[in-house]
Amino acid sequence: MTEEVLCNEKLLYTKKEAAKALNVSERTVDRFINKGRLSRISGYG
C-alpha cells in the first residue's frame, strides 16, 4: 500500500473537515480513528 501525505498548513481538522479532505464519510473517519490510522485530539477549541 502506498502512503500519501496531505500537505497544507492546517494542523487540526474536525471530523467533517477530515472526511471532506480524505473524500470519505464521517463514519469512515471514525473507523480510521478506532483502528489507530488517525489520531483524535479531545477538548480542542
From TrEMBL:
SUPFAM superfamilies the UniProt entry points to: Putative DNA-binding domain (SSF46955)
Pfam families referenced in this protein's UniProt entry, alphabetically: HTH_17
Regions annotated as coiled coil: none
Domain Helix-turn-helix: 12-39
Protein name: Helix-turn-helix domain-containing protein
